[in-house]
Design goal:
about 500 residues, five-stranded mixed sheet, alpha/beta, 5 strands, globular
């Protein structure tokens, strides 16, 4: 024990990282359920080879943790925290291949201080396992290429496949590998090596469940992830808001110091490559191959498309290693000060909910909504519950309630993976229902005063009830409209695909 204490004392970087992780762990019990937590928990409770909007790795992880430790908000959050902690440790191992001891420690602290690590530790998303398997892939590929341990190509292929089974963005791993070999004078010969191609074939084999599920379901997931976005990009409408919004998101996730360091070295390497036709050393080129396609690629489309804040996260792994080569002690100190300030503010928001969030993407009010909904069901007996906000209210109510809660497929609208749960909606025909609809802006406690035409066309009679008002810390913070719907007329006999 004394040896461990001495080691930590003599390694300030480890002390900082442990401090951030202990801080995050202590906040976990105070975190409420996020809609994403509930939705991917739903994945795990309905095991499948893959799912409509994402592959299933995050669902499998949540299923494992809740089966072992029991179902609770804390266990769901702890699963994210645990996997992200493994990512941090894997990052340290990967970074040690490229950096001196001093620069390694700086990169380690840079990673742990970011807001994006906190988000991954608190919120269930496909990015949680993606970042872990992305990092492991790079470790194995490094050993296979630079240490010439060929069998690590197989492990790299497995890890790349598991990354793809986490999120489709992982396809950029194979692209990065090929780009590195194409541009590397020293290692280009590996393109003729069967080990490289066996690695890629292995990665494809590991992704078989995702492909087979898509084959069974008319490639619905691939179409969903590509067609709408491709159509939006092809319209080529310039939007400064999208561009500056992306910059704002990245500055928040990385914090300004780290973001500016990354922008600086990105510009430096691009300028050297495009104007001087000069490429960096093999190891730096390896890092750039798994950074530039994701970071630069997504940034290039921000003027014409809204790039979500988490899409660039995989690039941060090698990007922060590169930043560790450039950042000095003074800038690192500023980064830490900003990080502490941001994390204190985040903790105050979590503990006291000081600023109301005008969105359903919040961790407050869902359990209280479930309790109020159950009270309504006692008054309006033999009713089923449904909502119409993509997945959020339905997923959260499903987490807290014993009875099944349905989404907008009840009124004939696409409902993401709710459409693929095998529900036979015909069995609900003639039943009454309670429709729950969130008032995201919550300006007053009044009724909505109008009936959605889709409700009227799917039920014989619809009556608006008194809204549900949720209090947080004694203040009215959330509002849900409620409608009593009689005699359901199912227009879709079955959602069993």
């Amino acid at each position: 024990m004394d040896t461990i204490k001495t080691f930590i004392k003599n390694n300030k970087a480890i002390s900082w990282v442990l401090g951030f992780q202990i801080f995050r762990l202590l906040l976990l019990p105070f975190m409420g359920l996020m809609p994403q937590d509930a939705y991917y928990y739903l994945y795990g409770q309905n095991l499948s080879l893959s799912y409509f909007d994402h592959p299933g790795m995050i669902g499998y992880i949540l299923r494992f943790f809740t089966d072992v430790f029991g179902t609770s908000i804390f266990v769901v959050k702890f699963a994210d925290f645990f996997i992200t902690s493994l990512t941090i440790l894997s990052f340290y191992k990967l970074a040690s291949y490229f950096l001196s001891k001093q620069k390694l420690q700086r990169a380690f602290v840079l990673l742990a201080s970011t807001i994006f690590i906190s988000i991954l530790s608190f919120n269930s998303t496909p990015d949680v396992p993606l970042l872990l398997f992305w990092t492991l892939s790079l470790i194995f590929l490094y050993k296979a290429i630079f240490e010439e341990k060929k069998w690590f190509f197989i492990l790299g292929g497995i890890a790349m496949g598991l990354a793809f089974n986490s999120k489709y963005t992982a396809l950029l791993l194979q692209i990065g590998l090929i780009l590195f070999l194409v541009f590397s004078n020293k290692y280009r010969k590996l393109l003729l090596s069967p080990w490289v191609w066996f690695s890629i074939i292995t990665s494809v084999a590991v992704t078989y469940p995702v492909w087979y599920w898509n084959y069974q379901n008319e490639f619905a997931s691939f179409a969903f992830q590509s067609s709408e976005r491709t159509s939006s990009i092809s319209e080529f409408k310039i939007s400064p808001e999208n561009f500056f919004g992306a910059i704002g998101h990245q500055m928040f996730l990385l914090l300004p110091v780290l973001f500016l360091v990354i922008i600086t070295f990105t510009f430096k390497y691009l300028k050297r490559a495009l104007l001087k036709f000069k490429l960096p050393s093999s190891k730096t080129l390896f890092l750039l191959a798994f950074f530039a396609p994701t970071f630069v690629g997504f940034f290039l489309i921000t003027p014409i498309y809204w790039v979500k804040l988490n899409w660039m996260m995989p690039s941060y792994i090698t990007g922060i290693i590169l930043a560790g080569m450039f950042i000095n002690k003074k800038l690192l100190k500023i980064q830490l000060i900003l990080s502490i300030v941001f994390h204190v503010l985040v903790s105050l928001q979590i503990l006291f909910y000081l600023v109301p969030i005008k969105s359903d993407d919040t961790w407050v009010g869902w359990k209280e909504l479930a309790l109020e909904t159950e009270k309504l069901q006692e008054k309006y007996t033999d009713t089923f519950i449904f909502s119409n906000d993509s997945y959020k209210t339905a997923a959260c109510l499903n987490f807290f309630m014993d009875d099944k809660v349905y989404a907008q497929n009840i009124i004939g609208l696409p409902a993401l993976h709710f459409d693929y749960l095998g529900d036979n909606l015909a069995t609900l025909r003639g039943k009454n229902a309670l429709f729950i609809d969130s008032d995201k802006r919550f300006k007053n406690k009044e009724k909505l005063g109008e009936i959605d035409s889709l409700l009227s066309s799917h039920f014989k009679n619809v009556t608006e009830l008194t809204p549900i008002i949720i209090k947080i810390n004694g203040k009215e913070r959330r509002k849900f409209w409620v409608f009593y719907c009689e005699d359901y007329r199912a227009t879709i006999l079955s959602t069993d695909k």
